[in-house]
Amino acid sequence: MNRFYPMMVDLTSHRCLVVGGGKVAERKIARLLVSDADVIVVSPVVTQTVKKWAEIGKIVWYPRFYEEKDGENCSIVIAATNQREVNHQIYKDAKKRKQWINVVDQPSLCNFTVPSTIHRGQLTLSISTGGASPSLAKTIRQELEQIYGEEYALFLELAKEMREEIQARVLDPAKRSQILKSLVSRQWIEACRSHPDQVKKWMQKWLDQELQAEH
Ligand SMILES: C[C@@]1(CC(=O)O)c2cc3[nH]c(cc4nc(cc5[nH]c(cc(n2)[C@H]1CCC(=O)O)[C@@](C)(CC(=O)O)[C@@H]5CCC(=O)O)C(CC(=O)O)=C4CCC(=O)O)c(CCC(=O)O)c3CC(=O)O
Ligand SMILES: NC(=O)C1=CN([C@@H]2O[C@H](COP(=O)(O)OP(=O)(O)OC[C@H]3O[C@@H](n4cnc5c(N)ncnc54)[C@H](O)[C@@H]3O)[C@@H](O)[C@H]2O)C=CC1
């Protein structure tokens, strides 16, 4: 069994090739766009959504069949056609170039796979089943979406600000660690959900009290 190494990658401005323009390719492209990658799509036919992305300049689309040179200078290649032999050829070309390659119909050829993912601002939750059951990954994603709502985005934004202030102002490591831990409480997360407009003021007040107790 292959245990994949979970890794958060900065794809900003990295050229990423997606071959194919169907439903599966569209999903992979959407993920790459969230990460600000430079996406090149090669496919004679694409979905309406992919076509729209090309029209508004979010991606570059070459409306033709795959050619070996398409993968040049790409950090990542995704073979997402419905032709097994074409996907296999894309794999061989990418392997020669030592690129990161995802083949949507042959998990054993992938040197990376795409997990099911939830974004809540800076929070990312990803689920992988190592290719055993993508449907289970999707089901768990849907369950977690109910538990981890949009309030986590606001909470993290505020927690980041407060954390920076705590790091700058609390010099005693033990005390700093204690305040940083108490910042992460159910109450604050709940307040982000119920009172998004007021919570920052309350948190700041709480922090000021904690910092005063310092002196
Ligand atoms: C190995 C991997 C490679 C990769 O694509 O990266 C792979 C491979 C394959 N998927 C197949 C089928 C389906 N995949 C989905 C859905 C998703 N597949 C995703 C990832 C992965 N799929 C990687 C492993 C992920 C892991 O480790 O868990 C997700 C998580 C991420 C994403 O794609 O963005 C996304 C859910 C996103 C979400 O909604 O949260 C559904 C459900 C649906 O579409 O509703 C079905 C139909 C039901 C079923 O088969 O279970 C087939 C058979 C094709 C066939 O039979 O023709 C293969 C090939 C094979 O297994 O041989
Ligand atoms: N990994 C995953 O998450 C999943 C993978 N699959 C697999 O993914 C494959 C694709 O599925 P869909 O997107 O639904 O298929 P689809 O039939 O909607 O799209 C296939 C695309 O490939 C393009 N294409 C075909 N030959 C090409 C070539 N030589 N060069 C460039 N583009 C070419 C077509 O123009 C079309 O846009 C299927 O074979 C299926 O087995 C299916 C479900 C999920």
UniProtKB/TrEMBL annotation:
<dbReference type="GO" id="GO:0019354">
    <property type="term" value="P:siroheme biosynthetic process"/>
</dbReference>
<dbReference type="Pfam" id="PF13241">
    <property type="entry name" value="NAD_binding_7"/>
</dbReference>
<dbReference type="InterPro" id="IPR042518">
    <property type="entry name" value="SirC_C"/>
</dbReference>
<keyword id="KW-0560">Oxidoreductase</keyword>
<dbReference type="Pfam" id="PF14824">
    <property type="entry name" value="Sirohm_synth_M"/>
</dbReference>
<keyword id="KW-0520">NAD</keyword>
<dbReference type="InterPro" id="IPR028161">
    <property type="entry name" value="Met8-like"/>
</dbReference>
<keyword id="KW-0627">Porphyrin biosynthesis</keyword>
<dbReference type="InterPro" id="IPR006367">
    <property type="entry name" value="Sirohaem_synthase_N"/>
</dbReference>
<feature type="domain" description="Siroheme synthase central">
    <location>
        <begin position="120"/>
        <end position="146"/>
    </location>
</feature>
<dbReference type="InterPro" id="IPR036291">
    <property type="entry name" value="NAD(P)-bd_dom_sf"/>
</dbReference>
<dbReference type="GO" id="GO:0004325">
    <property type="term" value="F:ferrochelatase activity"/>
</dbReference>
<comment type="pathway">
    <text>Porphyrin-containing compound metabolism; siroheme biosynthesis; sirohydrochlorin from precorrin-2: step 1/1.</text>
</comment>
<dbReference type="InterPro" id="IPR028281">
    <property type="entry name" value="Sirohaem_synthase_central"/>
</dbReference>
<protein>
    <recommendedName>
        <fullName>precorrin-2 dehydrogenase</fullName>
        <ecNumber>1.3.1.76</ecNumber>
    </recommendedName>
</protein>
<dbReference type="GO" id="GO:0043115">
    <property type="term" value="F:precorrin-2 dehydrogenase activity"/>
</dbReference>
